[in-house]
Amino acid sequence: MQNQQYENAKAQLSRVNQYLNLDEQTLSRLMVPDRFVEVNFPVVMENGGVKVFRGFRSQHNNALGPYKGGLRFSPEVSEEEVKALSMWMTWKCAVVDIPFGGGKGGVIVDTKALTEGELERLSKAFAARIADLIGENKDVPAPDMYTNGQIMAWMLEEYQKVTGLKSNAVFTDKPVEMGGSEGRTEATGQGGVFVLEELSKMEGLEPSRTRVAVQGIGNVGYYFAKLVREMGFKIVAISDSRGGIYSEEGIDVEEALAYKETNGSLQGYQKAKEISNEELLELEVEVLVPAAVENVIMEGNAEKIKAKYIIEMANGPVDPRADLILFKRGIRSVPDVLANAGGVTVSYFEWYQNMHQENWSKEEVTDKLRPIMGQAFKSVWEIAKEHQVDLRMGAYILAVKRVVEKLVSGC
Length: 411
Ligand code: GLU
Prior knowledge:
This protein has 15 helices and 12 strands. Helices cover 47% and strands 17% of the residues. The radius of gyration is 20 Å and the shape is globular. By secondary structure, it is α/β, with parallel strands linked by helices. Helix 1 packs parallel to helix 3 (79-95) and helix 3 crosses helix 15 (391-410). Bound molecules: glutamic acid. Glutamic acid binds at residues 68-70, 142, 144, 172, 315, 340, 343-344, 347.
């Protein structure tokens, strides 16, 4: 199923071409990454043995600025997945109009099976292998699934060691004391909240009467759920990879997460009923928020979705066939390249602060993020209305056009 993503990404690009009529050369150029690199590197394990790990970096397009995008550590990482995700980063940066292109990378590894020392050595070894590909004006990685600020800190340390360069702008979402930006950790969730705010204005959604189900309570899903609840929306369901919980009265997200931290999972939480991840997707709610993994809404279950709106906080949670079914059924899905773009937008703020030796407060970051998300949402909504297409196609029309204009003028 994982290898499906690159096919999905290419299918989406083919679909948008019905509205853009790009020449064959431009289209085929955008179907593939500018550069794709595989690295294999040894890591000394705790038992003294050496294990070889495989990693990738895909640089899709840099017409708008340096390649930008996360590095994920997961057993599911593959060449195809990384290529798809790098293409999505190109569109994501273009939708929010920040001066970055698209990149993505990853290592095939189950981080749960590593000790802290092994994780540090693996992160540093990978950073050393990709050091000549990346740089503050070349390619700027960030965290993604199963990576975090600590891992960026290790990588930055190693990058500076092997290149002799002092800049810290080459990685984003670093710890604040290493040049990270205030507000970056919650940025993706916060950006999604601004999207929900705009959607609510547009469609007249009243927070107290709007039920929200969030699949995945990792960094992105957690901040989204927490902030949305503070605004008065009702979070009726949340889940982690093992399953979910549901309560018509609403869930106290922080209490449920504290329970998960003590007990290892949400299962057994007394104030809500246990449900499966599949059931969560099919709940009768106003807003459904897939914030976990790819391809959870597909041809097989798109007919069963009862939500009126979907906010895609994960990358690639809805596949192209499901897009058509949802659109026909009048369900509006705010695409990933718009809904979760708050993360990379604040990564841009961090990069900018590093490049200009500035330090913005969390309030400044939030105040600058809101209009960017708001403007992107309104533009996408208008284009979708004008062309009578779903919001993903609206976002793609906007993004691909922006990239192609630069490609044509800059080549
Ligand atoms: N990994 C995040 C994403 O998929 C953030 C990327 C970044 O900040 O560069 O959007």
